[in-house]
Amino acid sequence: MNQIAFTMKLLPGFEKEYEKRHDEIWPELQALLKASGISDYHIFLDRSSNTLFAFQQTSGTSSSQDLGETELVKKWWAYMADIMETNPDNSPVTNPLTKVFTLK
């Protein structure tokens, strides 16, 4: 398993809406993520900075952010674009993180 982590930025005041949209994540999007090898996906919010921290375990080397060519992910990104910092194609602005420690 590979582990992938990155940050994103939530716009101020949209914490509850972000949680609501993810509580109601589309079943077809869940299926796509799992079919793409993502077995574990967690998103945490640092409320003091509106920074989202995402962590994924994958069976390959790609992450959810690499699925942007699919119509379903483009649709999700457009749905989320009004509450997050995004790129011109509506993809979330992400900052990849490098693992520096593992407790075994």
TrEMBL record:
Q: What is its EC number?
A: 5.1.3.32
GO biological process terms on file: rhamnose catabolic process
- List keywords of the entry alphabetically: Carbohydrate metabolism, Cytoplasm, Isomerase, Rhamnose metabolism
Annotated GO MF terms: L-rhamnose mutarotase activity
- Per UniProt, the enzyme's principal EC class comes to isomerase
Show the coiled coil region(s). none
GO CC entries = cytoplasm
> Which InterPro entries does the record associate with it?
Dimeric_a/b-barrel (IPR011008), L-rhamnose_mutarotase (IPR013448), Rham/fucose_mutarotase (IPR008000)
PANTHER family associated with the record: L-RHAMNOSE MUTAROTASE
Q: What is the name of the protein in this document?
A: L-rhamnose mutarotase
Q: Which organism is it from?
A: Lunatimonas lonarensis
